[in-house]
């Protein structure tokens, strides 16, 4: 883990708290939820103060490698910024702390789908694989939505190297900071399509499928189902999200 970096977000008073929350989470239950629904929630991973500090950092010029205005690309309406390396300490730690719990799940999914991918136990080894094929751009991001903004259903794929799980942390408080703006996931299988709205509170971390996952089909046999995620229109206020994607980008 890179510890020799400047912390751009001062109010991370509870660094040990999120490490303890990740370490003590019921990872069997989280995996069961991921297997059954393609998503799972760690409630209250960040404090309101940590969420506010990250959201307030959105307007800073420094610390980001690019800003994307979603309407220009047909991605929806709203905007987001990709962090630059070195990532803020909190974000770097969250990415490193979450990955080792997700890699064994990713490996079980890969085996169940007869895929060749296997994911190393630590993030730095996986990132080295990404960097070796030219996927060197950091993908963690922060998104900002105002009234009328939304995020089209999508998959966060940035090259051949794909880690099949990602995390989004809601930084704003629903009904206080914003209304509307619900996180939505869809699942497309040969048996039909369905959508799920996932209610989140400020500071909750949603673990979810990047592109596809194994799901029981007819006669219990596992089949591959494609998943997408997006956000319904924000009605009022401002909504910020922190996105943690584990593969880097070309
Ligand atoms: O704003 C959201 O909740 C969705 C963010 C998103 O698309 C992502 O983190 O990949
Ligand atoms: Fe996304």
Automatic annotation (TrEMBL):
It comes from the Bacteria. Keywords: Iron, Metal-binding, Oxidoreductase. The keyword Repeat does not apply. PROSITE patterns: FE2OG_OXY. Residues 136-249 form the Fe2OG dioxygenase domain. It holds the Pfam family Oxygenase-NA. GO terms for molecular function: metal ion binding; oxidoreductase activity. The keyword Oxidoreductase applies. InterPro entries: DUF2086 (IPR018655), Oxoglu/Fe-dep_dioxygenase_dom (IPR005123). Belongs to the iron/ascorbate-dependent oxidoreductase family. This is Fe2OG dioxygenase domain-containing protein. It comes from Advenella mimigardefordensis (strain DSM 17166 / LMG 22922 / DPN7).
